[in-house]
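Exercise 3.2. Students should predict the tertiary structure of the chain below and write it as structure tokens, then compare their answer with the key that follows.

Predict this chain's 3D structure.
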Amino acid sequence: MKIAGKDFRQRAVAVYQSGEFTREEVAKMFGYTTTTIGNWMRTFKKEGRITSLPRGHRAPAFTAGEQQQLRELVRKQPDMTLEEIRTHFGKNCSLPTVSNTLARLGLTFKKRR
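Answer key:
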């Protein structure tokens, strides 16, 4: 599925609003389905906007400050396990989340055997 930019959507809505073309013709002109053109028109009429709403994202398990503390902690105690790190910060996240955070920070961890 291709994503249409704001300018592209504005042109499609403007062409349809001109009254010279049907929704089907506009859809063919711009290479989208009639449903998509209809959705753009409905959103524009109801809400006055062309673009989609921003999508939400889950907040990171470790804040920026905690990530800095994590760097320092691993530098001082490189033999800490993921479980120990999670407990140290009082987090209720999975161990893979801790591991992924370390990886994003460019840090490695030691597995306890």
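Discussion points: The mean pLDDT is 90. Residues 64-104 form one domain.
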